[in-house]
Amino acid sequence: MKMLWITDDFLPHLGGSRLLYYQTIKCLPPGEVTILTKRRPGWREFDARETIPIKRGFFKKLSIHPLLNELPVYVEMMALGACRSLRLRPDVIVCGELLPTGLVGRMLSLAGGAPYLVYIHGEEVNVLKNLRGEKALAFSVLRAADAVVATSTPAHGEALRQGVRPDRLHLLTPAVDDYFFNAKPCPERARSRYGLEGKMVLLTVGRLVERKGHELVIRALPQMRREFPDLAYLIVGAGPMEEKLERVAREEGVSGAVIFAGRLSREELVECYAACDVFVMPHRELPDGDTEGAGIVFLEAAALGKPVIAGITGGTGDSVLDGETGFRVDSTSPQEIVQRASQLLRDRALARRMGEAGRRGVLRERRWEDRAQELRRICLDMVRRKSSESTIRRHR
Ligand code: GDD
Description:
By secondary structure, the chain is an alpha/beta fold. The protein has 2 domains: about 5-175 and about 365-395, Rossmann fold (3-Layer(aba) Sandwich), CATH 3.40.50; about 180-365, 3-Layer(aba) Sandwich (Rossmann fold), CATH 3.40.50.2000. The chain contains 16 helices and 13 strands. The strands form 2 sheets. A 7-stranded parallel sheet has the order 3-2-1-4-5-6-7, with helices on both faces. Strand 11 (about 280), helix 13 and strand 12 (about 310) form a beta-alpha-beta unit. Helix 9 (about 185-195) packs across helix 12. The two termini are about 30 Å apart. Bound molecules: guanosine-5'-diphosphate-alpha-D-mannose (GDD). The site of guanosine-5'-diphosphate-alpha-D-mannose has 27 residues, from helix 1, helix 12 and helix 13.
């Protein structure tokens, strides 16, 4: 089976959905997938190292009028997609997003006959619901798809509400890179690198963007430090909020206790997970609907046996079993964060139990290998269905 996988963004630009596609593709038989995506800083070196064939475009947006800004992306993606389709004759087109990718996939499918599958994660559906024109287009792409893969329960529910046929809709939650299961990290190395020896440590991993809720943890620190004076907050990741978060830490008088580690290698990252006492990311929903999808970082923390604290919105209920592997808190209230984080710092047996339950769960249910097999089965079904539909049409 040959798959043309189109996504408007991909590694080396880091992000949950990008990692999800990469890990899935890596577990599929070599040579089955060709990727069409965007150029990103570092793409040449990345593609040269990879065995997956990757074709890149510029996919550059304009900034003149909301209705025209995406036009060049559509034109270029469509042209490159058509060239690839002619050469490759794919059996299936996989689209990483509803727009622009899903629409391009749909056109290529209409032109060449290959069925198309589209991924939805949840947060983009929430944002699209507030954009009138795009919403209608995106949901028509969703309804017409030969298969839809939702990566979180809310995304799955939304697809059903939008009229996707249940037999074409599949829930494939993210998994965890085997590296996190098998690594033997040295937590002392991270502790000494960041001056955390003998301290209690809260950790967040993720892009520094508003919805991840770093600010809330910083604002909760002064109160928690009354009970745990040595408490430190380690932040791994980079992003546009860094300056603001530094300012908030100064305002709250906890600059010395908040460590910005920046973007780390996977080896360093796993040491940070191992070094923390509680993983905390009290994400929230923003006014434009942006929210957290499944939250792969909660699964990574669980793989290292750590209890986690998440927000109550979005799709993280698939990754964090409230009261079992951690807590989901109302992240509009710093009080809940203070209460749950302090509880886990105080009650070490509870923290250990939750961490162990989390690790058992991800070991049992969160392997990329299984997700890739399932995706392959869905694709093979699509191909079979399409070919029997065209046989029926021919005989009419
Ligand atoms: N090595 C390294 N270094 N990895 C990092 C760093 C870093 O500094 N910062 C973040 N990451 C990795 C995390 O380890 C994780 O694997 C990934 O980037 C972040 O993934 P998510 O927690 O899933 O967040 P996201 O906002 O990028 O992804 C979105 O889509 C996902 C897929 O549907 C979110 O909506 C997620 O909730 C969703 O799971």
